[in-house]
Amino acid sequence: MMQPKPSEAIPKGKEWCYEVKYDGFRARLHWDQHSITLISRNGKDLTNNFPEIIAYCQQKSDEVIELLPLQFDGEIVILNTKFQANFEHLQQRGRFKSAEKITRAATRRPAHFLCFDILQIMGKSLVNLPYQQRKNKLKETFCALHLDLTISWYHRLGFVAEDSKADEIWQTLFDHLGEGIVAKRLDSNYTEGKTHGDWFKIKNWRVISGILTSYHQENGYFSVAVYGKDKLVTVGKFKHGLEGEALTTIKQLLHTKGIKSGNTIHLPPAICVDIHCLGFSEGEFREPQFKQFRFDLEPEACTVKLVKDSLSQFPATITLTKQAKIFWPESGTTKGDLLRYIRQIAPYMVPFTRNKALTVIRCPDGVNGEFFYQKHLPDYGPDYVGGMKQGEEILLHAGSIDALVWLANHGAIEYHVPFQLMGESIPNEIVFDLDPASIDDFDVAVYAATLLKTMLDQFKLKSFVKTSGNKGMQVYVPIQKQSMTYEETAAFTQSIAFLLEKQHPDLFTTERLKKNRNNRLYIDYIQHGKDKTLIAPYSPRKTKEATVSTPLFWEEVTSNLTPTAFTVNNVVARVKDQGCPFSSYEEARDTQDLSVVKQFLSET
């Protein structure tokens, strides 16, 4: 296989294009009339490990028959977002031997084969064609297979698009905390190995500052520790990257400062270093490498908090303040915890705040302090937090990671958005708000959501569900632009609400006055209206438990569900482990069939 060479700098010029580098298994997909196989870079057959990819290709048999034999070059990945892969889950998949385990994993977190090159078509080799021509052939092949030139959550074959603007693709990659990019020379032939100057990989390194504490002679690894609550905590180890003067220096330090115990040489906590890594998983840094000594740094400055911030990769444009301030006293959750949550969840959250007017609840002193609502850009706010003008004011808008982090840095805890895009007067989604009498009645909201899902299925609608982060639940139906007016969505939500109320008058009500609800769940269909707002997916809440309005998979909506289980402290890990239940929201919007709804409305 042709492999990219590592590079610290991005080559620039018209002769280059750039692609996202995914953290996965490099493989070739061989496809002929008799078989479909996945072969790794090392020649290992991965076909049986990823049956979902093979099954998807088999569905394309009729469309591909005239193009066979065919060979794609690409990456097997399990995606967190369309720009960030989950290598930890993929590695686990690669270890599975049991067909039952593989099938279960393929259902829970299906893999993609992301194609970035085509090496053979109709049995003819393309390796001597320039890369740009091969890329065009790949596009033609995807079109023949009726596949979009993108990555789809619904399709197991994805297309890795190229970009001529290195800075833009790097910014997207950085925002999504991705692995890096690959620069490819447009006129390059396909050359096996790394004996070329045509492909370069530039990795999105996180720089971790820590203290050298020991050297393990049996394997050549150095341990790195940082301070956490006044004691040293080992956070990782490394062995690569030390050479030349740095290697000489460290040998001298081991000789003069080290204390030997068995095969380990211990060092006093005095020598600080920077190491590169790609993240942290399974208790270890990913691909750690020595970068430099930090003789300018006091050991006490190397802390767990600094490691967490470095792994989060905050935007350089924002100076974070007062991170130690307690925002949620009951759990001891700090403003720093909020900032790290917002930064890491932002790739999943921004799609639901982008191009929408925003109202935030700011709590500068935490949830027990004074709070206020804000929906306009303050005088001191940067342009990237502003949207369109409204009279003499500018609406708040969180269309980027920077905007969300800036708002959180200024004490914004809750993020509320309307049901229409900025400047528009018609909705782009339908939302049912299910509001039980108290958090103790959350099981009634669960029951209402499951009944609602059954009804929406009968209307052939794709629906999504989340906790409100407080005591209720919300069910979403994405709809295409200009497909329904607020008058139509109001008629639909009212009809559904009345039907649920009629079926279960002892459990549900549409009564607006709280005193008349008699502890029944309120189906708030009136809230779905122009300029009215609802808590955004993944927004934290101003609750004592630091809860989050959390998207769910429908199979999770059971009697065991509790809204306090999802907090600022665990939702990022949940999304990385299980995937985002709202990941296919935009694709569902594009393919949403409203014909049955329209027919229903015409008859009522």
Automatic annotation (TrEMBL):
<keyword id="KW-0464">Manganese</keyword>
<keyword id="KW-0548">Nucleotidyltransferase</keyword>
<keyword id="KW-0067">ATP-binding</keyword>
<keyword id="KW-0378">Hydrolase</keyword>
<dbReference type="InterPro" id="IPR014145">
    <property type="entry name" value="LigD_pol_dom"/>
</dbReference>
<keyword id="KW-0238">DNA-binding</keyword>
<keyword id="KW-0234">DNA repair</keyword>
<keyword id="KW-0436">Ligase</keyword>
<keyword id="KW-0239">DNA-directed DNA polymerase</keyword>
<dbReference type="GO" id="GO:0003677">
    <property type="term" value="F:DNA binding"/>
</dbReference>
<dbReference type="GO" id="GO:0005524">
    <property type="term" value="F:ATP binding"/>
</dbReference>
<dbReference type="Pfam" id="PF21686">
    <property type="entry name" value="LigD_Prim-Pol"/>
</dbReference>
<dbReference type="InterPro" id="IPR014146">
    <property type="entry name" value="LigD_ligase_dom"/>
</dbReference>
<dbReference type="InterPro" id="IPR012310">
    <property type="entry name" value="DNA_ligase_ATP-dep_cent"/>
</dbReference>
<dbReference type="GO" id="GO:0004527">
    <property type="term" value="F:exonuclease activity"/>
</dbReference>
<keyword id="KW-0269">Exonuclease</keyword>
<keyword id="KW-0511">Multifunctional enzyme</keyword>
<dbReference type="GO" id="GO:0006281">
    <property type="term" value="P:DNA repair"/>
</dbReference>
<dbReference type="GO" id="GO:0046872">
    <property type="term" value="F:metal ion binding"/>
</dbReference>
<keyword id="KW-0227">DNA damage</keyword>
<dbReference type="GO" id="GO:0003887">
    <property type="term" value="F:DNA-directed DNA polymerase activity"/>
</dbReference>
<dbReference type="InterPro" id="IPR012340">
    <property type="entry name" value="NA-bd_OB-fold"/>
</dbReference>
<keyword id="KW-0540">Nuclease</keyword>
<comment type="similarity">
    <text>In the N-terminal section; belongs to the LigD polymerase family.</text>
</comment>
<dbReference type="InterPro" id="IPR052171">
    <property type="entry name" value="NHEJ_LigD"/>
</dbReference>
<keyword id="KW-0479">Metal-binding</keyword>
<dbReference type="GO" id="GO:0006310">
    <property type="term" value="P:DNA recombination"/>
</dbReference>
<comment type="similarity">
    <text>In the C-terminal section; belongs to the ATP-dependent DNA ligase family.</text>
</comment>
<keyword id="KW-0547">Nucleotide-binding</keyword>
<dbReference type="Pfam" id="PF01068">
    <property type="entry name" value="DNA_ligase_A_M"/>
</dbReference>
<feature type="domain" description="ATP-dependent DNA ligase family profile">
    <location>
        <begin position="104"/>
        <end position="262"/>
    </location>
</feature>
<protein>
    <recommendedName>
        <fullName>DNA ligase (ATP)</fullName>
        <ecNumber>6.5.1.1</ecNumber>
    </recommendedName>
</protein>
<dbReference type="GO" id="GO:0003910">
    <property type="term" value="F:DNA ligase (ATP) activity"/>
</dbReference>
<keyword id="KW-0808">Transferase</keyword>
<dbReference type="InterPro" id="IPR014143">
    <property type="entry name" value="NHEJ_ligase_prk"/>
</dbReference>
<dbReference type="InterPro" id="IPR016059">
    <property type="entry name" value="DNA_ligase_ATP-dep_CS"/>
</dbReference>
<keyword id="KW-0233">DNA recombination</keyword>
